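hiii, so i know i said id send this last week but things got crazy w the move. better late than never?? heres the sequnce for the chain we talked about at the cafe, plus the structure i predicted for it. fair warning i was half asleep when i ran it
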Amino acid sequence: MNGFDYGDSHPTGIDHRQRKREADTRIVKHYADKLAQADAVYLGGGDSMMAGIALFDREIANIRRWQMWSAEAFVASRGDTFAAEMCRGYSLAGVHLDDLRLHVTEKIRWLEVCIAACRQLGDHHGEGVALANLGIAWKNLGDVRKAISCHDQALALLREKGDRRGEGNSLNNLGIAWAALGDMKQAIGFYGQALMVSKEIGDRRGEGDALCNLGNAWKNLGDARKAIEFYLQTLAIAQEIGDHRGEGSALGNMGLAWKNLGDARKAIDFYDETLIIARKTGDRRAQERALNNLGSAWGPLEK
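okay and structure toks below
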């Protein structure tokens, strides 16, 4: 990647290559900070979510460019400390917004170089967080066994560092992976542990995630009414903390549960609410799911 050229002469006698490197490092840090700022705004919940997405979207081309600069510099230098710090920064600072805008294969590339950078820097906590996110990415790509391996490693590292919130997230992620393999008993066990950890530390977002996952597990086991009880608890927490994505997820899952109970019109009402929220938050994947669910629900009614 090319930085900025400041000419060949300099009063201090620093050569051109050194000046170019200094300019590049300032820029790469600037866009890493922009990414962290956008993610922090997004996590504010409510209307702040859209402001965070808008900031990310304005800067995404530069963020991609300078993340690549960091990765190439890290690999080429075989361990440049600044490049390692930037690889870590780009992958961990924007983890929530990355899910909305990066393709899963691109996210895996970011996270794999982040893990290598964290290991070089001796940052075991950062390595654990990156492994957890890598596990989510592999699960989304369909490699569930690889996802479980990542989550197991992440859980061990985060427990070692006393990160209870990270521990709860890893337990939730392990449950999701085991559910994808069809082992609901294992999944419910992990969700229960995650719920307990989240309640102990007052992590309302993590509590909502665990309740939603428990609802999914019971829905998959055929108990739609029990699933709805969990989704209602999830919805209440999401609305309390201003988590629009969590709210949309709970509404969409309630729609699926009501469809399983044979009430397509009630399901459509929930899907409509989900679509409104997905459009408000700019979550394209959630919009696609809501539209697909609406089509599936309306189809039989129109025959």
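btw The two ends are 57 Å apart (CA to CA). thought thatd interest u
miss u guys!!
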